[in-house]
Write a structure and sequence with these properties.
It catalyses: [protein]-L-isoaspartate + S-adenosyl-L-methionine = [protein]-L-isoaspartate alpha-methyl ester + S-adenosyl-L-homocysteine. The protein is an alpha/beta fold. Helix content is about 30%, strand content about 25%. Bound molecules: S-adenosyl-L-homocysteine (SAH).
Length: about 210
């Protein structure tokens, strides 16, 4: 587990690329500049770790593209101490970004292999989520609700009702919605029954799986 000056230099270049693509939140850029993304990937992909691209990880899943991570995190508007629920822990990279921003992170993964691997890996880098859970993200995590932010990192065919219900008033749900292609969608909870919905551009995610492996 090595992080070298070369890696740091490549990370800075990645941060500059994200800036040119429109990411402005300084805290998000700082987190991406700090986190050793290459350590979240299998060794064969080390040379690609700081390109702005998604890459395969275990169990046929992907580590999201840095721009996507930055874009979603920016929409979430995380502040220190905020309780945030992540659906789709995967490699743990997005989890680490949320930890860097000072969020209290709860994250759910439904692939056992990834859940185990990432549960062991994140603490080694010093990232301590409040809870990593092996389970089904469609249900959210009602025991710890409500959340200031909920971020879904897989493509959802529809918006799961429990996720909206587990937002606090003023809370934000960032979720890519769609089958083949997803529209990044933000829901802000305005009241018990009212949500403000805003749609952003199109993204491509691996599917949020329900009742199957
Ligand atoms: N945040 C991750 C992205 C991983 S890709 C990262 O930065 O690496 C999406 C992840 O969502 C995969 O790991 C996949 O196994 C997981 N996933 C798919 N359906 C899920 C569900 N219903 N509940 C929880 N996780 C799910």
């Amino acid at each position: 587990m090595k992080d070298t000056f070369k890696h740091k230099g490549m990370r800075q270049q990645l941060v500059n690329v994200l800036k040119t693509k429109g990411i402005t939140n300084e805290n998000v850029l700082r987190a991406i500049g700090k986190i050793p993304r290459h350590l979240f990937m299998d060794s064969g992909f080390l040379d690609h770790a700081y390109q702005d691209k998604a890459f395969p990880i275990a169990a046929d899943q992907t580590i999201s593209q840095p721009y996507t991570v930055a874009f979603q995190t920016e929409l979430l508007q995380v502040e220190k101490g905020d309780k945030v629920l992540e659906i789709g822990t995967g490699s743990g990279y997005q989890t680490a970004v949320l930890c860097e921003l000072g969020a209290k992170v709860y994250s759910i993964e439904r692939q056992q292999e990834l859940f185990k691997k990432t549960s062991q890996f994140l603490p080694k880098l010093g990232y301590r989520a409040k809870k990593l859970i092996f389970g089904d993200g469609y249900k959210g995590l009602v025991e710890e609700a409500p959340y200031k932010g909920i971020i879904v990192t897989a493509g959802a065919p529809f918006v799961p009702k429990p996720l909206l219900a587990q937002l606090e008033i003023g809370g934000r749900l960032v979720i890519p919605v769609g089958d083949q292609v997803q529209t990044m969608t933000l829901f802000v909870r305005k009241g018990i029954k009212s949500f403000e919905k805003t749609e952003f551009g199109e993204f491509r995610f691996v599917p949020l799986l329900e009742d199957k492996n």
